[in-house]
Amino acid sequence: MHEDDLVVAFKDLRPQAPIHFLVVSKKHIATLNDLQPEDSPLIGQMFQVAKKLAVQSNIHEKGYRTVFNVNAGAGQSVYHIHLHVLGGRMFSWPPG
Questions:
Q1: Over its length of 96 residues, how does the chain's per-residue pLDDT go in tens digits?
Q2: Is 96 part of a structural domain of the chain?
Q3: Alpha-carbon torsion (34, 38, 43, 49), positive or negative
Q4: What is the number of structural domains in the chain?
Q5: 3-state DSSP call for residue 72?
Q6: Closest Cα partner for 7 from 86, 83, 85?
Q7: What pLDDT does 95 receive?
């Protein structure tokens, strides 16, 4: 879906919504707990790409959710930061 010097984005293999893609850092960072101040531009780029792809996927007006899972208790199973972008259905709050 997208690739640049900092990130790559692709559809999730096990989608949890009609639209579900991941924005993945090319730099290895295991969890958000491992972020350093110099990683701020990378995180900003992840969200810029999420926004761009949300527009392209036509979920930007009705709404979408962005999620970083951090460690096993929050559902992280791949220890390399990645931003989930989900849309195309209604979401409840609080999440499950």
A1: 999 999 999 999 999 999 999 999 999 999 999 999 999 999 999 999 999 999 999 999 999 999 999 999 999 999 999 999 999 999 999 987
A2: no
A3: negative
A4: 1
A5: helix
A6: 83
A7: 84
Beta bridge partners of 87: 19, 64
| Catalytic residue numbers, as ranges | 82
Give the three-state DSSP class for 76. Answer: coil
Amino acid at 14: R
CA distance 94 to 50: 22
Ranges of beta strands (E only) in the chain are: 2-3, 7-11, 19-25, 64-67, 82-87
Looking from the CA of 90 toward its CB, the CA atoms found within 13 Å total 2
Outline where 1-96 has alpha helix (H). Answer: 40-56
Query: Which pTM value belongs to this model?
Result: 0.95
Query: Is residue 74 one of the residues assigned to a domain?
Result: yes
